[in-house]
Hints:
Layout: E1 3-4, H1 10-19, H2 26-36, H3 50-59, E2 60-61, E3 67-72, E4 78-82, E5 90-96, E6 101-104, E7 108-110, H4 119-123, E8 125-128, H5 131-146, E9 163-166, H6 176-187, E10 199-203, H7 207-216, E11 220-224, H8 230-236, H9 245-256, E12 264-270, H10 278-287, E13 293-299, H11 313-325, E14 330-332
Parallel strand pairs: 1-2, 6-9, 9-10, 10-11, 11-12, 12-13, 13-14
Antiparallel strand pairs: 3-4, 4-5, 5-6, 7-8
The protein binds S-adenosyl-L-homocysteine and iron/sulfur cluster (SF4).
Iron/sulfur cluster (SF4) binds near residues 115 and 224.
Amino acid sequence: MTVNLLDFNQAQLAEYFKGIGEKPFRAKQLMRWMHHFGVNDFAQMTDIAKSLREKLAAEASIAPPEVQMEQVSDDGTRKWLIATDVGNGVETVFIPEDDRGTLCVSSQVGCALECTFCSTGRQGFNRNLKVSEIIGQLWLANCSLRHADGYDMLPPGERIISNVVMMGMGEPLANYDNVVTAMQIMLDDSAYGLSRRRVTLSTSGLVPAMDKLKEDCPVALAVSLHAPNDALRDEIVPINKKYPLKELMAACQRYLVKAPRDFVTFEYVMLDGVNDSVEHARQLLETVRDVPCKFNLIPFNPFPNSGYQTSRPDNIRRFRDVLMQAGYVVTTRKTRGEDIDAACGQLAGKVQDKTKRSSRRIPLEIVA
Ligand code: SAH
Ligand code: SF4
């Protein structure tokens, strides 16, 4: 089997070149061709000697994962279904906004952590994605967007994808090594050159891995909180039994010493009658007291047989007001790409009924 060069960061690629008797500086050239220019045909790499190009073509490949389906939402959101050998595949979502373009990247096929309100969690765990399958999502999205209507006229060098969020399917810190290597490629100036503030990792709270991440690759951090006390969090985010709130808050404080931003973003899914009362909001203020933070309230995105409902708009507003009155910045996430099931927590990774279910649109005039 040939090696897939998309599995390597620059340092690993340099090792590879050394191993085949070539100069390590070739790694930088290759990173630029593969990631900056999006080329996967060695023959096009004109500043590399023909003999080396032929050698690479014989024993290596640049093989992105296979796209099974691409969909575009009415609001411009795009979703790619990526084939995997097990499970139902994984999904990548591009969300265009006025001032940025954000790619939401998956890290695992399924997820073992079984948060009760998450459709990925309901699938169970299949396997970790390889580095080439994680960075391959960015590679493929770039490639596809470059040829898409509305983007094909962009001046060369203009970034379509300005931000990456590790918020797709799976728990990124449970696939630590591969996710860190993929993020190193995102940050590499020869590859995608994103700043650490523009790459955000979202975790349900794997405390030891958070401590490691702040040393290895301190990107912006989002933590899926979803409950203000241990009793409720134990129930809806079961990993809380292993790493309860007190430990999680301490880990957030430690992370901020190295983080590129001076706050953690706490994500909080709004579940009707479960975690959305004014009392919950007050408890939440107590819980996060010692952690500089912002809040991102996510109206629950329904999926079949979830057993939950989205909080009523009035309750979301009241909850938000309690936090804002205490001086916090609070955003309420707009639901995007709902007609193609691309909203967070809806990524199920299967080719399913694609009819538009307008009854599932949530009547919210959400404040971003
Ligand atoms: N595993 C990581 C990252 C992926 S999920 C994590 O849990 O943080 C990205 C965000 O979407 C998380 O905050 C997650 O809790 C939230 N989410 C999951 N299911 C959801 C749903 N049905 N509706 C709204 N948000 C959901
Ligand atoms: Fe896994 Fe995140 Fe879903 Fe929880 S919310 S099951 S950690 S993907």
